[in-house]
Design goal:
Length: 307
């Protein structure tokens, strides 16, 4: 455990019957860090959060939050942690203000006392303070849930897929809010299935099937991508994918919207020869350009290696 670690996890395993949800994972999160868990549904992200917020017991392994053990010191952790679960879990029949009052009261504080902590977030929904939570839009529910998680001034904030199902503008606004919370010194752990959000974190853990495949900065993850990568576009994307997989030296082919990302074991790829190959196979309007790997490209390659 590093001296400045806010969250420490060592050899954590969790089983649900025969299902292995987490397989011997270890990591540290530094104080004031914005740390992201990136991976699809079923990767184990929510299980980690539930264990760290003392809602679930691990099968084996040790975990601590701000030096407090998640089993022995669970009451202390609940006073210093804020948790925003993936599913909106506030009281739908209470108003916006009633929900915030309720959570403030539970933690022995008031909205007035800690209003400065949530002002920037809450001001955006305060005009609707008398509206029932169940009648809010996705973006407004998100802001209310974050306000309720923040009202007791937590040292560590756990946000489980906070932007899932939220429109693009609200997603951007939310990450801007997280950046300002981080600047205020709060440690933030956030999970997301959206690969593009990885670049907004200080460090990320890329997860699949209960395993952490790598932990690094987003920039370092991309820098370590070992292959040559091309973006290829043609008229018929479905047939294009099949033809590219037949091309000599191709390592992997994945669809990214209307283009294909094609990786090669050989760093030197003759674009003209590849273009000729595709045109010979009746592909029209062929466009080929070298690109830098995205986090998603890196994730797919790490997943292939782990398999």
């Amino acid at each position: 455990m590093t001296p400045a670690a806010s969250v420490h996890v060592e050899q954590l395993t969790k089983r649900f019957g025969e299902t292995l949800a987490l397989d011997n994972i270890s990591f540290d999160v530094s104080r004031g860090e914005l740390f992201g868990f990136i991976g699809p549904d079923g990767a184990g992200k929510t299980t980690i959060f539930r264990i760290l917020t003392t809602l679930l017991l691990a099968t084996t392994g040790t975990c601590s939050v701000e030096g407090f053990d998640v089993v022995k010191d669970y009451k202390k952790i609940r006073n210093i942690a804020g948790y925003m679960p993936g599913k909106f879990s506030l009281y739908q029949d209470l108003t916006v203000e009633e929900n915030l009052n309720f959570f403030a009261t539970i933690f022995g504080t008031t909205i007035r006392e800690n209003y400065h902590l949530v002002r920037e977030i809450y001001q955006q929904i305060e005009p609707f303070k008398n509206r029932k939570a169940g009648k809010l839009s996705g973006g407004m529910k998100q802001k209310l849930a974050l306000s309720c998680a923040m009202i007791h001034k937590p040292d560590v904030l756990f946000l489980d897929e906070p932007t899932t199902g939220v429109d693009a503008v609200s997603r951007l606004e939310f990450w801007e809010m997280l950046k300002r919370l981080k600047e205020a010194g709060i440690t933030i752990l956030v999970s997301t299935p959206y690969m593009d959000e990885a670049s907004l974190c200080d460090r990320v853990a890329l997860m699949q099937n209960g395993h952490i495949m790598t932990i690094s900065t987003p920039r370092e993850v991309i820098r370590n991508y070992p292959l040559s990568l091309l973006s290829v576009k043609a008229g018929d994307i479905y047939n294009l994918l099949g033809e590219l997989r037949k091309y000599p030296g191709v390592h992997s082919v994945y669809a990214f919207g209307q283009t294909a990302h094609v990786s090669f074991r050989n760093r030197e790829v003759e674009k003209d020869i590849l273009s000729g190959f595709l045109k010979k196979n009746k592909h029209e309007s062929v466009e080929i350009m070298p690109i830098e790997a995205t986090i998603e490209d890196c994730f797919m390659e790490l997943m292939n290696n782990n398999h």
